[in-house]
Amino acid sequence: MPTTLEVKTPRLVTALPGPNAKRVLEQDTKFMSPSYTRDYPLVAKRGHGAIVEDVDGNSFLDFAAGIAVCSTGHCHPKVVAAIQKQAAELIHMSGTDFYYESMPQLAERLSKTMPGAESKKVFFTNSGTEAIEGAIKLARYATKRDKMVAFYGCFHGRSMGALSLTASKSTQRKGFGALLSGVEHIPYPYAYRCAHGHTAETCGAEILEQLEGQIFKRLFDPEEVAGIIIEPIQGEGGYVPAPKFFLQELQRICRQHGIMFMVDEVQSGMGRTGKWWASEHAGIEPDILCSAKGIASGMPLGAIIARESVMRWGPGSHGTTFGGNPVCLAAALATMDLIESEYKENARRMGDYLFGRLADWTKNFKIVGDVRGRGLMIGIEIVRDQRTKEKAADLRNAIVDLAFHKGLLVLGAGENTIRLSPPLLIDQEQADFAVRTLEDCLREAEKKI
Ligand SMILES: Cc1ncc(COP(=O)(O)O)c(C=O)c1O
Question: What pTM did the predictor assign?
Fold first, then answer.
């Protein structure tokens, strides 16, 4: 009989949470910071592929991937081997002060994936928020300007600079006082709730008018703006894609005024949408691109990738002790091999398959308002009433919890959206299991209205 990690779909052997999980939860409540946001009591012990086993021997199908991080699945043997080999050879050296081979090697590979003919340069960080933090500094340094424009609903991280751009949930800012000055937010082109009744292709024209007609005329002269930053597909905000024309127009406006066009691909990048970067689907060429999450299959790594003519800050202007640690870089190189050879294409194929399976959900379930996204970045927005589009956060939360009790791990995004962000290696059997399970959950949730 296969072990629980060798199976492709879940197997539950105790009530949830099981007895061992309960012990961990008790200790966690006592000693861990209460700022963490756990949706349900999964206490993970081991993982393999898209399967996670908990401390009581229950196995789950993981459609959350540690918040879109485990791109190559849990503990891919090639990633594990790369980490083990590197750990036995050199764990740390600090790329700020010394050289090692894998740094320019990974930088070259990443540079070649970023759209645009100009050569690129890379700075490595430990996380997404650090990549954004560095990108803000780089935009200011490169332009000698200090103002920034960002979008409502976008999430860029929680360190003070990144938090100044984040406008996702007020709890993320509440109690922390003043943030960076000179940051203005404008609406994100959210087609399902488009204030002007546009479609997924045309939503956002009025937002661009607001940027040029209001922000640039009444608040900041565009010549004072260092950067405009956007997630090409909003992640934490609810898996909302921006229309292609909108991103292209934003790029045009940036170029016209010498503003850095900055994209946050921390969640949408590294093959998740079927291409290296979601930006590629829109045909845009950002000046600065931030990556993290899926870049190293779970090892802490982020990257700022910028046009060579932009990343010209001098020695000492930015640095890091741990960023681009050799073990993380080894994991990233192995991750890139796998994404390039198999998983980018699999994300596209399985994404198409899943969108096909979900195509009728807005007809079949009266609480499904919208299904959207690209590749394996799929958002399902839950509403109380399709006509009024009243957000149903309670039903979304109930569905996420029900799914857990049926062995499927999913997370929420935004106020009322379920996000599907599985590892990029899922197969059709696993996609079918997830669809059937969510359909059961939706049917159960509908009984609550
Ligand atoms: C788009 C985006 N940017 C930045 C971040 C921050 O990344 P980290 O949590 O690694 O600091 C996140 C995290 O969810 C994200 O989704």
Answer: 0.97
